[in-house]
Amino acid sequence: MTKPLLFIVEGINDERKLQSMSLSLNTYAVGGFGINKEKLEFIKSASHNNTIVLLLDPDPAGEKLRSMINTYVGGCTHIFINQNDAKDPKRNNIGIECMDNSVLHSYLKDLNFTSEVKKTLSYLDLLDLKLVSSPNSLFFREALAKKYHLGHPNGKQLLKRLNILGITKEELINTLKGE
């Protein structure tokens, strides 16, 4: 069985660009040079259940990030974008978010899309475990975030990231109990 694809992008605007194409893609924005060991650990953990696809800006910063992530995680799939395809002449900017949708789609078309992440958890599970909408939910989310290298997620981000990692409700219960 083919693993789902997880697209690693630099920022939130890159994520929005992919979402605007009406593709159901799983994405994770590293925040450019705001990337840290926790984010690298998350990507490495996610690589067990997902094919990591690096879709980074075709500029020196993007190439530096590509090298850093690939060295830390290993085995990544790379999409290399031509700088001319990612140029926004109006803003004198280069990036994934600047690309025309049809051009970006042409880069993605040859990938074997199995982007559906197996949903191991639902929002109701998070409610049941008091990870959202409860007085102590922030405390519990922070404990999980630390254990699983999730950054500082809100409830929606927590659900997405735990599903990417394939964490089950039973695993969460055990983690919250301290086992």
Written overview of the protein:
The chain is α/β, with parallel strands linked by helices. It folds into two domains: 5-108, Dna Topoisomerase Vi A Subunit, Chain: A, domain 2 (3-Layer(aba) Sandwich); 123-177, no CATH class. The chain is built from eight helices and six strands; from the N terminus they run βαβαβαβββααααα. The protein has helices at 12-20, 37-46, 60-73, 101-108, 123-128, 137-148, 155-165, 169-177; strands at residues 5-9, 26-29, 51-55, 77-79, 87-88, 93-94. The protein starts with a strand and ends with a helix.
Give the helix/strand layout.
Blueprint: E1 5-9, H1 12-20, E2 26-29, H2 37-46, E3 51-55, H3 60-73, E4 77-79, E5 87-88, E6 93-94, H4 101-108, H5 123-128, H6 137-148, H7 155-165, H8 169-177
Parallel strand pairs: 1-2, 1-3, 3-4
Antiparallel strand pairs: 5-6
From the structure above, extract its key features:
single chain; 179 residues; alpha/beta; Dna Topoisomerase Vi A Subunit, Chain: A, domain 2; 2 domains; four-stranded parallel sheet; 44% helix; elongated
- The topology string of helices and strands comes to EHEHEHEEEHHHHH
Integer average pLDDT = 87
Gross geometry: elongated
Strand order in the sheet with the most strands: 2-1-3-4
Known CATH architecture of the largest domain: 3-Layer(aba) Sandwich
Look at the structure and give the CATH class of the largest domain: Alpha Beta
Short account of what is shown:
The chain is an alpha/beta fold. The chain has helices spanning 12-20, 37-46, 60-73, 101-108, 123-128, 137-148, 155-165, 169-177, and strands at 5-9, 26-29, 51-55, 77-79, 87-88, 93-94. A 4-stranded parallel beta sheet has the order 2-1-3-4.
